[in-house]
């Protein structure tokens, strides 16, 4: 791969509204015009759509369908928090890779993969993660956090994901307590939070997020077709993965700072407005406990309060809810 690729990607990325001449690129990077031309030809072969017109120059029209490490680096470079990213074509699970990397990395980082061959949900369930359709990523947060706070982490993050989907696509994304995002009662995102630390405090949070961006219904395996959706399926518009990632990271960073410095009670009113479980009778399962009833509140520590059909009150830490 050309050693000038990342610099040329950056120049074209920042000048998408205009043609940049080979001469200008060569001068800016202090390289030969032949090197520019060769690199651009290589990029085209790798899936970049670049309009090249003689005497006018080159204009980037669209990105490769697969995640491109150079563009991810440009997007994540805006991040005030995550300073390192690992981009893969295929892994078993970004969560598994993040857990390996956390052993010798005490700074916040991101793991993204095009495909996961063994993406996982909670309790070792499977997460369907096909190539070039979604965003499969693990975020590693690295701060000393008192143990009692962790029960509200998912609530802050889910609000950030729902806000991003709404602002980028206009789709009415709703939070399904404790760790899913739904659109029109179909699941389009799930996440999984794991922690490492010692007896009194958490040192790292490894948060795996899966978001269906550009699937069509037929792309989902049969068993998911009646319950999964993607943003594109709901809006009809293809989601620009890089713009989405950019917005998502800034929403998540903002939510994470809020999580560190505020209590859940400060965002509870907004969280409740984004939530899709109120005023409906649903089935709640936690371990062997099954309750049918209506959610009536969320406590400040993140526990859900459900009133069953006989009027008794139940508290849940992390139930599965059938919608
Ligand atoms: C979750 O678990 O929803 C957490 C999913 C986390 C996935 C991310 S992707 C990046 C990172 N790396 C990983 O390996 N995992 C994380 P849970 O609440 O247990 O829901 C799992 C259930 O969701 C499955 O049993 C299916 O019914 C359903 N499901 C599986 N794949 C789906 C998909 N792509 N879209 C919607 N629903 C899906």
From TrEMBL:
| Feature: DNA-binding region | 22-41
Q: Which UniProt keywords apply?
A: ATP-binding, Biotin, DNA-binding, Ligase, Nucleotide-binding, Repressor, Transcription, Transcription regulation
InterPro entries, A to Z: aa-tRNA-synth_II/BPL/LPL, Bifunct_BirA, Biotin_CoA_COase_ligase, BPL_C, BPL_LPL_catalytic, HTH_11, WH-like_DNA-bd_sf, WH_DNA-bd_sf
Annotated GO CC locations: cytoplasm
* Binding-site list for biotin: 116, 187
Role description: Acts both as a biotin--[acetyl-CoA-carboxylase] ligase and a repressor.
Task: Fetch the NCBIfam families from UniProt.
Answer: birA_ligase
UniProt-recorded name of the protein = Bifunctional ligase/repressor BirA
